[in-house]
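Lab notebook, page 48
Experiment: co-folding of the full assembly
Goal: obtain a model of how the components sit together before planning crosslinking
Operator: M.T.
Materials (sequences as entered):
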Amino acid sequence: MTKLLEVKNLTMEFGGVVALKEVNLHVSAGEIAALIGPNGAGKTTVFNVVTGYYQPTKGDVSLNSQSVLGLKPNKIARLGLARTFQNIRLFGDMTALENVMTGADARNKVGLIGSIFGTSTSRQDEKLSHSRAAELLTFMGISHRSGQLARNLPYGDQRRLEIARALALEPKVLLLDEPAAGFNPQEKVELGELIKKIRDAGFAVLLIEHDMSLVMKISDRVSVLDFGQKIAEGTPSEIQSNQKVIDAYLGVVDNAS
Amino acid sequence: MSSYKTVLSKINLRDSFGAWWENATKRQRIIFRVALIGLFYALPFLDNPIIGTPETNFQSVLFYPLAVFVVMAVGLNIVVGKSGILDLGYVAFFAIGAYTHAVLGTFYGVNLWINIILGAAFAMVAGVILGLPALRLRGDYLAIITLGFGEIVRIVALNLEFTGGAAGIQGIPAPPNIFNVTFDVLDPKPHYWLMLTFTMLVVWMYMRLGKRRPGRAWEAIREDEDVAEFMGVETTKYKLWAFVLGGAIGGGAGAIYASQVASILPDYFTLNVSILVLACVVFGGMGNIWGVIAGAALLQYLPEKLRFLSETRILIFGLLMVVMMNIRPDGLFPRKKREKVYDKVTGQEISR
Amino acid sequence: MDFSILWSEFFGLTLDGIVVGAIYALVSLGYTLVYGVLRLINFAHSEIFMIGTFTSLGLSIVFGYTGLEEPLGIVLFFFVFLVMALASGIASGMSAVLLEFVAYRRLRRRGANRLSSLISAIGASFFLVELFRLTTESKDWDFPRMLSKDPVFSISTAYFTLDKIIILLGAFGLMFGLDRIINTTRLGRGIRAVSQDEKTAILMGVNVDRVISFTFLLGGVLAGFASTFYMLFYESTKFNVGFLLGISAFTAAVLGGIGNIRGALVGSFVLGLLQQYSSVVLGYNWRDVVTFVILVFVLLFKPTGLFGEAIQRARV
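Observation: model returned without errors.
Model output:
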């Protein structure tokens, strides 16, 4: 299995704070990898570094065996890495369709000049973005929302929209940051099925999630982060019985002080 | 109170117009467009006691402040309304365009047609020089820098001999005759039509961009720049484009303005002008080009019509900006799009 | 570029630079304090200052000192000056609180974005400027010379006149007082808390609304005192006096690092000196360009200023 996303020895320091220390992760095509850990462990920081928002202090991130260090986030996105956000961040005043089209646009070539003069390529691109966005909205089951403003959508549809927008980039790797937050159990089951569908379509999925039952049910592999370091990695059942992981979540009596 | 609100909510001009527009045939749309454009060109002849301005020449008012501010509002709208970049120094581009024609036209005999392009080009260059470093900054700081830039341009024009110093430049030539139309200082009509044509070109260009990828990119940048970046939008490029295009529009308008007023002073290009244009954009509806045009026209027309307002114009604009932001930040004609709701099962459109 | 005057007048220019810097410092503290708690640039702070100048002017008219021919006696002067300074402080302070209430509070409650707040601030600023332009007929209003400007002593070309000494002592006294307020009083602690972490401050029981009003009050009062010092030194005001002074004070705050009190002070003195020096080297005309250029350059190349906090990006 080709490792589509590889994070090697990643260290991230902010001033004096070491947010991540020598973290190693990888995700392969057709795989759902989960990243779990107590709050503040650094999981979202991993996403932020991987997508190019922060430059790591040490270490490397490569996408499809190509290092993406130092590249701007939009370039990394266009190379095939898309993400969603812990607190939903949609383009509120744009319609659902426009939100997804913004992602789809990234796959097109035509820029400003072409658009002004309405070249045939630009018109084709426009149609392409439109149809791909519509398809994705249907895939996520929210095509009836296409004409509505993103901020007027109900919560569940907003989460789905964010995923649709990320998929519009046709990424090789999809990063999902707590996609199930705020869902009821039924919706979580549907979401799980959806993520599996995405994986079966050939994407590599890296998932940050707090809902353990969801994580254990759909993940192929789980990595555990605590205080910025990876403390365990393995199959869901291995992780569930790993003492270090249990300690991290429940806390250990501090003998040092 | 509540019944008045429900009545108002039913009279939604934007949505009813939008509904009509969508159902209109191509022929109907063309007729509408032609009629509207015809109306604008015919405006100078429609001076009458009802819409005319009491103390000033209506035709002159049509050119300045109406047409000038409308086109500048359209330009600034791309920057502030659509892309969310607060520019407080927009007058700088206007000044650059005006001085381009003033200097090149008066002293070097270059005609207006070339100077419109040159003015726009110089403004674009200024936009790049300022924008490349400045657009990296966050909102407030960017705003202050643009303000500083606007003032720097004015003070430089005030102090350089090349730009005539405090006395400015006089005797700026009108454009040469075209289509048998003579441009004359005394007759504002041809200049108005020229500015109107320029405005239409600008609006046409904007329509091509706004509904396509650049428009979406700009809006995404305004909504959430970081996320736009994550979604593959080249934010630096698009921000710079917004800034530069806005500048080009200001520059072109400045050149035309200089040719009509025939003499310019640095005093014409103060911070006040930048704020006035901003007020038009804010009042009209940030991001909504029709709103901005209507808002600019209203805000410039009313003080002329109601003369007592004219003295306190800026006072009212200032108050307006505070009030608008607190009560109706989206402007008079908000850019909220017309939402379509579809039925989940049948896929049919549900009318609200 | 003429450097000869710079060397020959160096001490004099330096003294003036420090005096002007002291006035800037009091005003720039207003910008920096408000920025610290709200992350907002109070565009209308310059008009708060302007209101102070007219308050002092108004009192001078009320006391009948317009067209004064002889300076007042020292004791009388101090009394009058104190009254004027207090009155300006109160007027500016209350104007600032009112400004916050009218132009910013609602937006803050709504969590409105920066653009809206900034536009509201600009609108308020313009409203105030125009209001005063219309009521004061856009002319220069002169302030009577209530104090003799004969030098008390001098160091080389630096002539220490009484007004300069008063300004320096007064400004430093006020800054010391501010430091005490920020560090020892409850509201001062509140300001520091909200500046660092608003959410936690709320959880700790800090009344954010009151803290913010108090911040505006402090900034306004300081600007009010500064305005009386300004009138003493420059002896004139006009409806748009706030603009250039505000830009200078703001540049000083940015130069020192916006949000950083110590930075605002250092930045103010540095700017005051730079302005004095450059006005003789480049010519008085170019002085304002120098200020703007410094502002633009600092923002472009070292936006954190000399001491300041980093301009934060949104946390993803």
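Interpretation: The CA atoms of residues 100 and 165 of chain A lie 4 Å apart.
Next step: discuss with group before ordering constructs.
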